[in-house]
TrEMBL record:
Belongs to the saccharopine dehydrogenase family. It comes from Knipowitschia caucasica. GO terms for cellular component: lipid droplet; mitochondrion; plasma membrane. Gene3D superfamilies: NAD(P)-binding Rossmann-like Domain (3.40.50.720). This is Saccharopine dehydrogenase-like oxidoreductase.
Length: 427
């Protein structure tokens, strides 16, 4: 069983790496807010990154935002750089869990995973890049298993609401759930909103590298999951959704890949019925559809060439119609924003066998919460870490590289998220 104990040599429950980044600053604040939820009511934690000065500023800011002056002196600082493996190893030796906020993960992530696996620190990240997530599973699962280390990727908005939402839908359905579609709507609030440049860059390089992901999947050599019940039909690339009453497109993030990995894990470990999954996102009305079409065409064309990628990276606001920006959203914008993910599931109620024809039961579940990227994400990441610390026996028996659903299926993560404003409910 992997260990989650601190010791004189490993003094920190959590080390937040990349704490000076746009997302990292909010993870720091969330850790400070929830410190009393650590084992026996305390949490020993430190911030880490490549600039001591920036980290001091971040602690200063958190102390002032949360009116907790003690953060300036009680939270330690560790200087570590992705380009200096010894500094990563030294950091990992001191941490039970590293919360890794340094992205794009395809460029910066692997040395951190390697250092965690080799030095006995569990690793949680916010990655929304399937190629990185699946690549880490391919390269490090066996070693993480031997070393008793959990490497749990995509523990932010990508992809905890979707992955845990599918499991919640399955658990609430009275019978055998066989398929779920999720529909995401984001409400920007009166001040508007945007997403920080860090995620824009991750998306640009992710799309540019699409064929590498296909090759990686071939290397796994996995058979498709069996389809139980009716096969879930794929919707078109743009359609009007009666479920959320607006134009809708397939969700382009990591959710489908993460949910599939979870289902595959649970089928193998627990011999359960796999749930088919389709992920969609609402776009809004016709004017948004026109903007999206225009932006997508430009994006698909430019992302293929290095000069195009350079331009996309230089002018995020222009090419994304203001959805992404170098400054990121303001705190006021974050306060006004929220999301809703509606899950429409179908299956066979108790007493009806999937071999008996079409599904005869339906279920609707909603996962809703505050702003996705910098409020929900830090809550999800910190709660994932607290779940490891407090409920380790409910996690898989061995270390390994896991999706959130695979790691947390048997824990109380849903209750923890509910308490922190990310609500899971059956309609
Ligand atoms: N899953 C989700 O829903 C979700 C939500 C939000 C963000 N994210 C992901 O989180 C990642 C970070 O996004 P962001 O917007 O916070 O980006 P960001 O503001 O650019 O932050 C990047 C961080 O990485 C650090 N860094 C860069 N190179 C480093 C190195 N060589 N050694 C150590 N640290 C280094 C930076 O340190 P300095 O401060 O010293 O420059 C900074 O702290 C992205 O991959 C993004 O996609 C995911």
């Amino acid at each position: 069983m992997p260990s989650v104990e601190t010791s004189p040599n490993r003094p920190y429950h959590l080390v937040i790496f990349g704490a000076s980044g746009f997302t990292g600053q909010f993870v720091v604040e969330e850790a400070a807010r929830t410190a009393s939820e650590g084992p026996n009511g305390t949490l020993k934690w430190a911030v880490a990154g490549r600039s001591r000065q920036k980290l001091e500023k971040i602690l200063e800011q958190a102390a002032s935002v949360l009116s907790k002056p003690e953060l300036r002196t009680e939270v330690d600082i560790i200087v570590a750089d992705v380009g200096e493996p010894d500094s990563l190893a030294a950091m990992c030796k001191q941490a039970v869990i590293v919360l890794n906020c340094v992205g794009p993960y395809r460029f910066f992530g692997e040395p951190m995973v390697k250092a965690c696996v080799e030095n006995g620190a569990h690793h949680i990240d916010l990655c929304g890049e399937p190629q990185f997530l699946e690549g880490m599973q391919f390269n490090y699962h066996s070693k993480a298993e031997v070393n008793g280390v959990y490497v749990i990727g995509s523990c932010g908005f990508d992809s905890i609401p979707a992955d845990i939402g599918v499991l919640f839908t399955r658990d609430q359905f009275k019978g055998t759930l066989t398929a779920v579609e999720s529909f995401l709507t984001v409400n920007a609030g009166p001040e508007g909103g945007c997403i920080h440049d860090g995620t824009w860059q991750s998306a640009i390089y992710g799309f540019a590298d699409g064929t590498k992901l296909q090759n990686l999947r071939k290397k796994f050599g996995l058979k498709p999951l069996p389809v139980v019940g009716s096969r879930l039909k794929r919707r078109g690339t743009l359609f009007y959704s009666n479920e959320i009453q607006q134009y809708t497109v397939p969700f382009m993030g990591s959710d489908p890949s993460v949910v599939k990995r979870t289902q595959r894990f649970l089928v193998k470990r627990d011999n359960v019925t796999p749930v088919q999954y389709g992920a969609y996102a609402g776009v809004g009305g016709v004017s948004n559809v026109v903007k999206l079409m225009f932006a997508s065409l430009m994006f698909w064309f430019m992302v293929k060439f290095s000069f195009g990628r350079d331009l996309l990276i230089k002018y995020p606001e222009f090419f994304s119609f203001g959805v992404f920006s170098k400054e990121g959203p303001t705190r006021k914008q974050l306060e006004g924003s929220s999301f809703q993910m509606a899950f429409h599931g179908e299956g066979y109620t108790d007493g009806h066998e999937p071999s008996s024809g079409k599904p005869n039961g339906k279920i609707r579940v909603v996962v809703q919460g505050p702003e996705c990227g910098y409020v929900t994400t830090p809550i999800a990441m910190v709660q994932a870490a607290l779940t490891i610390l407090n409920e380790c026996p409910a996690l898989p028996d061995t270390g390994g590289v896991y999706s959130p659903g695979a790691a947390f299926a048997k824990t109380t993560l849903v209750d923890r998220l509910n308490k922190h404003g990310i609500q899971f409910s059956v309609l």
